Each structure stands twice: as structure tokens, then as C-alpha cells.
Amino acid sequence: MKPPKLLPLALSLFTFLLGSLHAQQSPDQSDDDIVRLSPFAIQESADMGRYQAIESTSGSRVRMDLMDSTQSISVLTNEFLSDIGTAQLLDAVKYVAGIGNASSTDTMDIMNIRGFLNWEMVTVDGFGQTSYINLDPIIIERIEIVKGPNAIIAPQGLPGGLVNNVTKRPLFKNSGSVSYQVGRYDSNRAEIDANYVVKDDKLALRVVGAFTDADKYLKEKYSQNLTVMPMLTYRISPTTELTAQVIVYNGTATLTNIPLSIYAVGRRNVHILEGLPRDFALSNRDDNRHESGQRAQFLLTSQITDKLSMRLAGKWAQQSSRASEIHPSSPRDVNGDLLDPQPVQVNPITGAWEWDGIIRSDEVRFTLAGVKDMTDLDHANLQSDFVFEHLGQGWKSQTVAGFAINYRSTGGGYKIAFATPVNGSNLFDLTDSSYTPVSFIVEPDWAFHSSLRNRSNQVYLYQVFNLFDDRLVLSGSLSQNRYFSGGTDNLSGTSTDDRAEATLPSGGFVYKLTPEVSLYYGYSKQEILGIAHPKDLIPTHTSPSRQHEGGLRLRLFDGRLYTTFAYFDIQQDGLWEGSLANWIDPTAPKEPAITSNRTSKGFEFEFAWSPTKNFSLIGSFTDFKSRDQGNRRYSHIAERMAGIWGSYSFSETGSLRGLSFGLGANYVGDRPSDTLGQYTTPPQGFQPARYQPLFWIPSYIEVEATATYRFNKHWKAQLVIKNLLDKDYIKVATNRTIYPSTPFNPKLTLRYDF
């Protein structure tokens, strides 16, 4: 059943009202009353503190006071990103409530947001993109995190929310800096940021860039990245501005995972394979993920009248990715046969993995194999927004209407790869002292190769009213979306064609007990286009998600303290899977697939506080449950997290002027690892059981610190120390391997400002 065509009618009504309201200004409105600040630009106060933000544009594509939002929005300022020595997005967002790491820390900026993984999805300036490598922070000015479904900025995004990286823009002042970093690991990095005003208040140019050639803690592991972003801003008129940016990058990174103990089960023996050093490398430098790409984007904003503004933004990008990933097999004996019995076995009745503590093997061998993935990607986006603002006596309104067009074309696939045999054998004793990181051979034929095309169109209407002298804020939106996905298996010639429509509402209110204390509630929806799988009788479908969220916000002490207490309840429906009956008797006619849902609900607390001009704090705490329909936890999701960071700068007139310190700690609770398989094959008379996680990743606390000293207006040095207490812990895990922590890791950066 198609959704009602409400939005075209609403837009027609909006166009009529726009003309009539502009034709006759309200009698209680004067030129002095009209606020002419662009609704697309952030206006921050420099006196509130280094980590304080009062506005965001990521919730509805226009500027919004954080106190007026009906869903949680967190902002990480440029000062915070600089103070902690941000080397990748996870360095910063781990201090935000509801965000944690996931199945890898080396590539793709994979993280979980309120329990949902942002697999292959990074958002830059409101545009989603996929990437095989981490985004270089040199291009980022600030990070804005929108929690929960949001049908305006990301109708097909993550149900848990999105992390929107706002890029740097040209400034109308001459300034710049160059820096170089050295250190023990993950360093050897140069940066440049140069801004030049060609014509006062008319044209400004800026270029930022970074080159990294860093060794990892593990042998043979490294990362290299060259990112350059030139840009310009041209003020066509006092009310119209155009910004254009080009991003060119070329990066390579290796995974730092190590084989897991073959006796790991539940919470027992969760550590590196016995006999391996902590810096063990399974494969050599050729086993890596490489990506090169170009991205061009523009932003045009204009104040058409005192009440009407517009924004037009577009992006085009091209990427070429090459990735390999080698993993160890299940343990084998010296003849290459699987150990019989395996030390760790699944209980076919419960699905839980077990080890009796007796079955052992002193001579374990592994085969090493994986895939070589080769993908080329083109994507383009176009967005436009019109904002009509009206100011009345004791009230004001803002009406936003816009559209978005998105296109993506992907071509590629993968080939099977396996380790190069040594002395004619493809069996490896990883604990042998003579073992060296292996190279690998790629099969000539494709194991899978496909072409995929995705298109989506969006039209939306957003309305907000500030009533009773800003005491009550009411807001709501309607987003109408059309999705298309067409794919072709280039090996078999089979094709799929999936289409869907969705009309997504949202709404809520904010009630301000005082100007500094507010209560809020919000309801939002989102809908993701799913892919049909005829073999499993899964039809074309969408997976809708909705969120209820409510909470309390405080902005006290002239804005120096901002804090949020939030409760959220997310449910995602339309998750299809094959029927259990098909698993019981694979020879019987297939039963139709069934749907299930997942939920994520819990509490968040976060704050940013600057009790004095010299002292700044930011912190968060999260306690929630992310579960499937059977109340089972999801892999790689920690349901309890916390973080706190503080910095202190000495007085500018004292003997320690120019010196500042920072100290932070991050807690991550235990998490289930991968679930290997779907259902067990139980003895006769028992139903198949879902496989449980193979093991649990232990909780950990990581402490980091910085010290910064400014010698004069030109020279500054910063010392960043990761893992200050030199703790040995597991960051994440995947496919029977774990990612160990990097030991005590100091990095020194020398910077020259001009």
C-alpha cells in the first residue's frame, strides 16, 4: 500500500503562505526586530568555555539551539579535538554518551551508536559515504552527533543516529600553521593549514593537508595517508556566499588483529594464542586496505529576504578500494585435519560454547586464508533547503522545506586469497620461533563480482514554533522518500530490482521550566531499504525504526555548564531471516521467511563544564540494553560505557603561562564476540538452538594524558600519551582474532603558527 501523498500538498500550501506572509509584514514586527543571522551558520560564544557549544546544524539541516532539540545532539568542539590530540574519530567520540568501538579500530571508522553499527558509513557535512580507511581528522572542524533515527538528515541512515563530521571552511583572516609529530607508535605525521584572504570580506582561500607514515605496535603493521583539501569562499553579495571544497586522499592501513587462544570460551582464556608475542603479526605489509579517492563539494547560502533564506549543497565523489584480509582457520593437527574433538565445542541443545578444561592439543597448525576485495565506487548528492522565519509578539516560527537526491554506483567483488606455502606446506605453526609474517596468493577467478546502483529521493517539511516568549517549543516534520536499488551478479547474470516508498513523521516538544532548565520529548522515524533474497524467500522490504526519547537539559552559570539526562527507546522492525523450519529439514519445501525486530533502550548522561576560564571538563555515562527479539545481546556492543576528560591551562601572566595539561579516562564494558553460525543441529527430539557468542571481550579502562606548552605566539609543543598506565587489554575482536591495546605510547608534536 502506497503512503498518502501528503507532502506535495503541504509544500503547495507552504508556497502560498510564503508569498502572502512576505507580501505583508506583521504589524508588530520592525526592521530592528528581525534577526538576519544565516540559519545555516553556527554562531558560538567564545566566553562560555573551550568545550561548550550552543548550536548545531545536524538535526534539521538548519541552525538549532541545543536546548530546543527534541532529540539528543552532542557537539565536540575544535578545541576539544585539539586538546586530546585526535588521530582518528574514535579518539574523540568515545567521550560521547551512547558511542563505543565495534569490530575494528584500524579502518572504516567502525563504531556503534546506541547499539547499532555504522558499518561502511561515515557522514561528512551531512552527506553519507562509505570508506575502507579511517577519515583523516585534518579536515574536521567539529563533530556533531545526532542520536536516534532522523528522517531529515539521514532517512536511510543508522537507527542509532549519526556522527556528522563538519569540515573546515575558509576564514576571512590571514592565518596558518605547520606541524610535525614524532612518537613511539602511530606517529610520524606532518600537517599544514594555511588561510589567505584574497580580497577583504569577498574572497578567502584555505588549504589543509596531512601526511602520515606511521608504524603500528605489531610487527609489519603500518598506516599511510595523504589527504589534501583546498577550498575557497566567495561572498557574491553581503547576503550570498559560496564555498567550494576538493578533497583528495590516498591511504593504506593494515589490521592489527592477532589469533585468539583456541581455548577461549565464555569469559575463560580470552587472550592471545598461547606462545605468541604480544606484537605478533600474522601476515606481511601486503595484507592491507588501500583506498584512493577524490571528492568535490559546494555550499551556496543566500538570505533572499529578511525572512526567507536558502541553501544549496552538492557533492560528487569517486573511490577505488583494494582490501585483503587473512585469517587463521579452526585449529588442525600436524596432518592438516581438524582437531577431533575440537577443544571448544558448541552444545547443540543450548547453542552455548563449552570447554571441559581437559581436551588440549600441544601441536596446533593453521591454514591461513581470506579474500582480496576490489571495489570502485561513484556517488553524488544534491540537497536544497528553504527557510522561512517569522517573528511575532512573544512567539516565532521557522518553516523549512527541502529536497535531496542521492545516487551511488558500485562495481567489484572479491577473490579467494591464501597464504603462500612455505617448504611446500600450507600448514603453519604460528608459535614456531622461525615463523615470519606470510605473503599471500590471490586466485585468478572471481569468487563474487557484482554491480549495484542505488538511488533515493527525499522531500521534507519541518516546522518549529517558539511560544510564550520561548517557554514552549513545538516541532514536527514529514519526510517523503523513494528508494531504488538494482543489482547484478556479474558471474551468474541474475539481477535484483528493489523499490520502496516511505513517509516518515517526527515531532516533539520542549518545555522550559526556566530559561536554563528544560524538559523535552521527541518521536522520530527512519526506514531502510532492504534487499530481497529469493533463495531464502525473503521479499523486497524495508526495515523501519522509531525512537521515543525524553529527558532533562540544564544550561547553567551563563552557559558554562551544559548537561543532558536522556532516556531513549529505539525499535527496528522488518528484520528478515529464513524460517527455523527450513533448518530442521533442509529437504522439505521451504517455508516463507519470517520477520523479527530489535530494540535498544536505556539512559544517557553527558556534560560539558568550564567552571573557570582555565579549567574545562567533558564527560558521559551510558547504561542501555541492545537486544534482539529473544533478548540476546548483539556482538561487539558494550551496554555500559563512561568517559571523562579534563584540561587545565595556567594563567597567562604567571610563571607557568603557556602551559596546560589534560587527563582523561574511558571505560568500556564487556561485549559479546562474533556468533559463528545460525542454528545448531541438535539430537532428535530437540529444536535447533541459536548459536551463542564464542567468547566475551573483557571490560577495560584506558587512561590518556596531554601536556601542551606555548613558547610564544608562533611556537607550541604538545605531548600526547595514549595508554598512560600501560594496560594490556583487548580493544575489539572479530573472526577468532583480537585487537590488543598499544602499550604506553607518547607522541610529541611541534607546531609553528604564522
TrEMBL record:
<keyword id="KW-0798">TonB box</keyword>
<dbReference type="Pfam" id="PF07715">
    <property type="entry name" value="Plug"/>
</dbReference>
<dbReference type="GO" id="GO:0015344">
    <property type="term" value="F:siderophore uptake transmembrane transporter activity"/>
</dbReference>
<dbReference type="GO" id="GO:0009279">
    <property type="term" value="C:cell outer membrane"/>
</dbReference>
<dbReference type="InterPro" id="IPR039426">
    <property type="entry name" value="TonB-dep_rcpt-like"/>
</dbReference>
<comment type="similarity">
    <text>Belongs to the TonB-dependent receptor family.</text>
</comment>
<dbReference type="InterPro" id="IPR000531">
    <property type="entry name" value="Beta-barrel_TonB"/>
</dbReference>
<dbReference type="InterPro" id="IPR037066">
    <property type="entry name" value="Plug_dom_sf"/>
</dbReference>
<keyword id="KW-0813">Transport</keyword>
<keyword id="KW-1134">Transmembrane beta strand</keyword>
<dbReference type="InterPro" id="IPR036942">
    <property type="entry name" value="Beta-barrel_TonB_sf"/>
</dbReference>
<keyword id="KW-0998">Cell outer membrane</keyword>
<feature type="signal peptide">
    <location>
        <begin position="1"/>
        <end position="23"/>
    </location>
</feature>
<keyword id="KW-0408">Iron</keyword>
<keyword id="KW-0472">Membrane</keyword>
<feature type="domain" description="TonB-dependent receptor-like beta-barrel">
    <location>
        <begin position="282"/>
        <end position="724"/>
    </location>
</feature>
<keyword id="KW-0410">Iron transport</keyword>
<feature type="region of interest" description="Disordered">
    <location>
        <begin position="319"/>
        <end position="340"/>
    </location>
</feature>
<feature type="domain" description="TonB-dependent receptor plug">
    <location>
        <begin position="66"/>
        <end position="161"/>
    </location>
</feature>
<keyword id="KW-0406">Ion transport</keyword>
<keyword id="KW-0732">Signal</keyword>
<dbReference type="InterPro" id="IPR012910">
    <property type="entry name" value="Plug_dom"/>
</dbReference>
<protein>
    <recommendedName>
        <fullName>TonB-dependent receptor plug domain-containing protein</fullName>
    </recommendedName>
</protein>
<keyword id="KW-0812">Transmembrane</keyword>
<dbReference type="Pfam" id="PF00593">
    <property type="entry name" value="TonB_dep_Rec_b-barrel"/>
</dbReference>
